[in-house]
Write the structure tokens for this entry.
Amino acid sequence: MTTTVRVPAKINVSLAVGPLGEDGFHSLATVYQAVSLYDEVTARPSDDAELHVQVHFEGLEREGSVPLDGDNLAVRAARLLREETGVDEGVVLAIRKAIPVAGGMAGGSADAAGALVACNDLWGTGLTRPELVELAAALGSDVPFSLTGGIAMGSGHGEVVSPVLASGTYHWVFAISDEGLSTPTVYAELDRLRHDDDVATPEVPSSILTALRAGDPEALGASLSNDLERAAFSLRPGLRETLRAGRSAGALGAMVSGSGPTVMFLAADEAHAADLAAFLEGSDAVTEVVQAYGPVPGARIV
Ligand code: ATP
């Protein structure tokens, strides 16, 4: 018996970063959208009681970028599920990776969410979705959203997910860099740039919620916002050129995705996204281009 789970990448259409807390985390107010770029996690029984992981890369080769031991987020998820339920079985987790590694699209979190759902099925541990969401929050800020998907607000450190009223489908083009950016490094750069500025309590701008409720891509494109963008630009000045390229080709909005270095462009519809993608593929500023749409559901058994 094997179980395969498909899990989407996430983007943040709005990401407000508050001050650094005493717990070492920043408070966030974000709006997530799950998009149709998926990792797949397959769980099958192991001959021993160990937790094994294999990674197969789709698209950009990133050999060596993902740990193949107990540090892998999928393995950590399986270990946590075992601890919580008292199961002593092993598992072989095979990950097909299409989400760029260290690309600001929560690929590692997707694999953790996928492993929770796949192992819960394989081992027959029967945890409910709310119970899985609780374990997900212990694994990482983006893991609960990888389970739920759709469009949602994230507060706390991003792990407290609540529904957002939204309509329509949004067509995106992603410019993926061949070298990732580490999320902690990007937050540290933001802190450095902010010095001891007074940082306000993070809030989601009402213009984002209005645009999503109306299903209006033009309004959404005009209100995209990401406090981490300046830190990503500071570490990768070349990203500004990528943004300019997409804007000049008529993107409704252009912004760094999460901690970067992926840059996301919003198109008016699918045909416009194809045109934008073709233009960016021909641009010197970009390595790999991917088209996707959102919202899509979170981790699901296929
Ligand atoms: P986020 O958007 O959530 O901040 P990210 O998408 O920028 O994260 P990830 O791809 O999730 O970054 O991974 C960041 C790091 O986590 C990688 O550089 C890698 O060393 C480690 N890692 C551990 N397990 C995994 C996994 N299954 N897939 C990808 N990276 C993993």
In short: Residues 65-67, 71-74, 95, 101-109, 111, 142, 180, 183, 258-259 surround adenosine-5'-triphosphate (CB under 6 Å). The longest strand covers residues 26-44. The chain is about 35% helix and 30% strand.
